[in-house]
Amino acid sequence: MPDIAADLLCNSRLDVLMGGGHPWYDRQGLPLEIPDFRFFGGQALWDSLTQGHCGADRDGDGNPDPWTFIDSLEQFRALASGPAPDRLFGLPRVRETLQQGREGRVLAPPDSVPFIATVPTLAEMTATALNVLDADPDGFFLMVEGGAVDWASHGNQTGRMIEEMRDFNRAVDQVVEWVERNGGWKRTLSIVTADHETGRPTSPSAESRWPLTPSSRKADLLNPENRGRGAVPDLVWRTVRHTNALVPLYAKGAGSKYLMESAQRKDPVRGRFIDNTDIARTVFRLMPLPR
Ligand SMILES: [Zn+2]
Description:
Distance between the termini: 26 Å
Strand content: 5-15%
CATH topology: Alkaline Phosphatase, subunit A
Number of helices: 9
Helix content: 25-40%
Order of helices and strands: HEHEHEHHHEEHEEHEEH
Strand order of the largest sheet: 1-3-2
Number of domains: 1
CATH class: Alpha Beta
Largest sheet: 3 strands, parallel
Bound molecules: zinc ion
Mean pLDDT: 91
Shape: globular
């Protein structure tokens, strides 16, 4: 991952890049005396970025276009509206994820362990990314990942998984608000999906065993039991690994019908589904890459 991030920072034409792995903060968001560059990509890259030298030629004029670097919560919030830099790299002041890796009981109910107060939410990062990108008259592509849903699920951390899903949901709300304020769904396509499922939380009464077999698939459809608003659903995790369970895909707006057309594969229980590589193919068809 640090290699990919370094490549995106030094060689790509991206306008916005944000992520975790701040070398000067620990997983609780507290400053370190000795930096740890392991999750970032090395000290040389860090120095070049923070001194304003890092960045390839984005606009094709033959000159490098360095990144504007932000890391404080105040900076993220200040750039959520109004004038924005051409290229923005945002690195919240925490070592790994935003909140999922914080200290305290990882198996506690949602919201019972205090949150780190010095990092933005995924929704705030999304608002800032949209504010940088929407200056482009040709439109833009933005990918937002709620990546720690997966980490919480690997740990079978029900409470933290719920917190992460809710944070992701709020990021989707930001996108919906942006679309509705900026020309509506005839101009913009939003896709909400997952790259895979992890942990397979099901109802305690489901008979399913991992891995799924054709005969266990129907039983496996027993979702966690809804115990009402504000209560943690009753569920049992079936694995600490990724699974091949089908995941939902929601699409709304311009071109969404092409996703439905591409959903040509068939599951005996769930019905039609789309191969995840066909999602990318459909997006490229709708928004060809510049040559
Ligand atoms: Zn994973």
